[in-house]
Amino acid sequence: MYFLARERKVRTILEFGVGKSTIVFGDALCRNKENYFHITNTSLRRVNLYECHAVDNYQIWLDKCRNEIPQALESEGVITLHLARLIIDQFKGRICTFYDPIPNLCPDLIYLDGPDQLSAEGDIRGVTTAHQDRMPMAADLLSFEHFLQP
To answer: Residue 41: what pLDDT?
Structure first.
């Protein structure tokens, strides 16, 4: 993950699920900022430069991650943690899950490490992902894919 963020000169990360990866991404963004800010600050029409936004529906995981994040990464705005509900809904007629809300940004790297299939709220006609034989069906990426820059 660190190698990909550095090699691709990533500037903005959206992460679904928080943990050690959040800290790894934050460190990679700091290094990228050190190396490329002088170029990106003047040549790109982008906001949220060198930020990692991590979304989770468990406050306990957000607290645990917050306690492990080096103070500089959070105080400088490199890492922002977001609490969101995980809801059952439909995307193009298929039952899935969505985090609500998600940060309104345009990332150049998205890391999907969540959600937990058993924690979604609600159902569609009695169907939910909260069954041991089912898989998580996250549709967040599909819902805003058309906004992403190539």
So the answer is: 85
* pLDDT at 143 > cutoff 90: yes
Does CATH number 3.40.50 belong to domain 2-147? no
- Domain boundaries along the sequence of the chain: 2-147
| Claim: this prediction has a pTM higher than 0.85 | yes
Query: pLDDT (tens digit, 9 = 90+) per residue, 54-63?
Result: 999 999 999 9
The full 3-state SS of the chain, as one line of letters, equals CHHHHHHCCCCEEEEECCCHHHHHHHHHHHHHHHHHHHHHHHHCCCCCCCEEEEEECCHHHHHHHHHHCCHHHHHCCCEEEEECEEEEEEECCEEEEEEECCCCCCCCEEEECCCCCCCCECCECCECCCCCCCCCCECHHHHHHHHCCC
